[in-house]
Amino acid sequence: MAEPGPPRLLLASASPRRLALLARLGIKPDAVCAAAIDETPARAELPRAHAQRLARQKAEAVAARIQGGGRTHVLAGDTVVAVGRRILPKTDNEEMARDCLTLLSGRRHRVLSAICLLLPDGEKRERISETVVRFKPLCEQEISSYLASGEWSGKAGGYAIQGRAEALVAWLAGSHSGVIGLPLFETRALLKSAGFPIG
């Protein structure tokens, strides 16, 4: 009887950032497939529950499209920026981004980065990282300069910490990679538990 092949990994994300972060673990997915789901927060949904639900739904949506999944595992993630109970949007216009940056100026906020690994037998393994970030007080020139960079487009909370916004962060406690979009400590633990060869 032939030995089963190594586990296969499908990344349920179109994010080049998550792909690049996986590469830091020495992992290259066998396939990448975006999950098209409604990311609108449910009524009275808290930030942590929102991030966990979306990561789970993304994994399930992509797994449902797999034909003859075999040993395919599906990894999905979602990152939420929150001020208190308020979930900040993924900004799709400059006005939204300005509102977010103005709100975040000089104060702490949380970044919740959830991951879900869906195993071939349907088992779900989940982790979440919570990072506290504080921006320096931002003057109008700093906000306008950042908006002009265009980095805010499509980003939760209106900023990308892996870009120019990193110079605006006065203090951070938690997972830097989680703020980017994939918490590597938690992701490594999940993948190792599922039999992926990670050093």
From TrEMBL:
| Record EC number | 3.6.1.9
Q: Does the keyword Hydrolase apply?
A: yes
Recorded catalytic reaction(s): these are: dTTP + H2O = dTMP + diphosphate + H(+); UTP + H2O = UMP + diphosphate + H(+)
> Has keyword Transferase?
no
Keywords carried by this UniProt record: Cytoplasm, Hydrolase, Nucleotide metabolism
Question: Looking at the Swiss-Prot or TrEMBL record, what is one Pfam family this protein matches?
Answer: Maf
Report the enzyme's class at the first EC level.
hydrolase
Catalytic center at which residues? 78
Major location, coarse class?
cytoplasm
Q: Which NCBIfam families match?
A: maf
Q: HAMAP family in the record, alphabetically?
A: Maf
What family classification does the UniProt entry report for this protein? Belongs to the Maf family. YhdE subfamily.
Protein's job: Nucleoside triphosphate pyrophosphatase that hydrolyzes dTTP and UTP. May have a dual role in cell division arrest and in preventing the incorporation of modified nucleotides into cellular nucleic acids.
- Protein name, please? dTTP/UTP pyrophosphatase
